[in-house]
Design brief:
With 489 residues, this protein is mainly β. Helices cover 0% and strands 54% of the residues.
Length: 489
């Protein structure tokens, strides 16, 4: 029996349906014209292209696309039919605001050397930027757009999709969506094979038609790879890690929940009449939990209860008070509180009693957390004119800024249990406060001093990593990322 495969082939500047796409053609006048073919039998696309690059302010490549509006999701596998060529020849998924060479775009590209990256240009003719996936040689890639937020996910062979990056790239409501291929050599024609292509169009949505989607994640600090523990169209925040390393604790809907680090069904931890917020954490021995919350319409106060729920004991009669740290000996709580309209850092015995004010600088001081040896308290302060990470002794003396690198608004420093690292969240320097639904990064810096590195690029902010979230072995930390997605039927 002879099997005949039907290929539909379109040349460098063709219109007309080919597979999913209504048009295909060269962008930026590559020296060698490209083409697209599609097999109805296998569902594979073969796209041949030359082109100098998809980079800087002007692109040169081949693009098979169709017009879409609003939210969209594309998934595919990328391989090469032609061996050799430039190590940075690339093929992948693209959303593009027009077909001129300098058009804004957002793309997930797979390079010949295995690099997978989210590449984007925010303005016409402007620079191209990228965020690299921690996963190389991905078997599957995915590009999603929800409103103006684009997201990249990648999957290893036989594995689940892993979040890689998310950020805001405003391309406009109407864009071209499709497959892009570039040989990275204007005089060399290379052919990519794209299989398993899927295109889901969710359409446009107003702000009222969107809901928060929360994703509880774990990131490995040595590899940068991320793993989803739970994803749901609901709002939850601020994970803690239990001492045995088996469970994450987080808040959502005014309640505390626990879930295995491997995923599963969340279990409610009762907190009585107290409606909790996102400032909570476990004692060093894992037996108790401090929570911040309110009863009825009262302001936030700090309570202590058994780790699995039970009687709530009020620790801070004064309000508002927001817990952030537990001393390594388990005897003292550190927190942010407003007294007379000024937010500062305070400590109080875990059994209750008189509170001690540690900071007096004008402006917000927040997020206190003890170093694992108990010799320092890290906190964030706006006293320098921008929110930065600071450190002081437990009695409030020797206050010094520890943030390094270009200006950024840094919040909630969490020292690793082994004392080697600080993990914290950074906003753009122009952002005031710690609002939700912003482009942020999670950074890792040596606790002994030194420049930070960006470990995670995500859409989030408030609720992402407010409280201690390191694994007991200091190899990973947990956080929550967000998307504003269109309500699904």
């Amino acid at each position: 029996m002879r099997i005949t495969t039907l290929f539909l082939i379109a040349s460098a500047a063709a219109c007309g349906q080919i597979g999913h796409f209504q048009s295909n053609g060269d962008i930026g006048a590559p020296a060698k014209p490209g083409s697209t073919s599609f097999s109805k039998q296998t569902g594979e696309y073969r796209i041949s292209a030359s082109g100098a690059n998809i980079w800087a302010g002007r692109d040169s490549f081949h693009f098979a696309s169709k017009p879409v509006s609003g939210d969209v999701e594309m998934t595919a596998s990328i391989a090469w039919a032609t061996p050799g060529g430039h190590e940075h020849k690339k093929a992948g998924l693209m959303l593009r605001a027009g077909r001129d060479p300098g058009a804004p775009h957002a793309s997930v590209m797979v390079h010949a050397d295995g690099l997978v990256s989210l590449q984007f240009r925010r303005t016409r003719g402007g620079p191209t930027e990228e965020v690299r996936s921690a996963l190389k040689s991905a078997a599957r890639i995915r590009l999603m757009r929800d409103g103006d937020v684009v997201s990249m996910e990648a999957a290893p062979a036989g594995g689940d999709f892993e979040p890689s990056a998310a950020l805001t790239v405003a391309l406009g409501e109407n864009v071209e969506a499709g497959l892009a291929v570039c040989s990275h050599d204007d005089n060399d024609l290379q052919t990519a094979v794209i299989s398993g292509f899927e295109l889901k169009e969710h359409g446009t949505a107003s702000a009222k038609e969107r809901v928060v989607e929360s994703t509880l994640e774990i990131v490995d600090i040595s590899t940068g790879r991320r793993r989803i523990v739970r994803r749901a169209a609901e709002h939850f925040e601020a994970p803690n890690w239990t001492q045995d390393g088996k469970t994450l604790v987080y808040n959502g809907g005014g309640k505390i929940w626990r879930i295995p680090v491997s995923g599963g069904t969340p279990v409610h931890i009762p907190t009585g009449e107290v409606r909790v917020n996102n400032d909570h954490g476990l004692s060093p021995d894992g037996k108790l939990m401090a929570v911040s919350g309110s009863v009825a319409r009262s302001q936030s106060q700090i309570y202590v209860m058994p780790a699995l729920g039970g009687e709530m004991r009020l620790v801070t009669p004064k309000a508002p008070s927001y817990w952030h740290g537990w001393s390594p000996d388990g005897k003292t709580l550190a927190y942010c509180a407003s007294r007379g309209g000024e937010y500062d850092i305070y400590t109080i015995p875990v059994e209750g009693g008189e509170e001690t004010r540690l900071t007096t600088a004008k402006g917000l001081d927040d997020g206190p957390e003890y170093s694992p040896d108990g010799r320092s308290i890290y906190f964030n302060s706006v006293r320098s004119g921008i929110m930065r990470i600071w450190r002081m002794k437990p009695d409030g003396s020797d206050q010094e800024m520890v943030s390094q690198g270009p200006p950024s608004a840094d919040w909630f420093a969490h020292p690793s249990p082994d004392g080697q690292w600080l993990a914290y969240i950074s906003y753009d320097a122009s952002v005031e406060g710690h609002p939700a639904n912003k482009d942020v990064t999670l950074r890792l810096a040596p606790a002994s001093g030194g420049a930070p590195k960006t470990l995670v690029t995500l859409f989030g902010g408030q609720g992402t990593m407010n409280v201690p979230s390191w694994s007991p072995d200091s190899r990973s930390f947990a956080f929550v990322s967000y998307r504003l997605v269109k309500k699904r039927p």
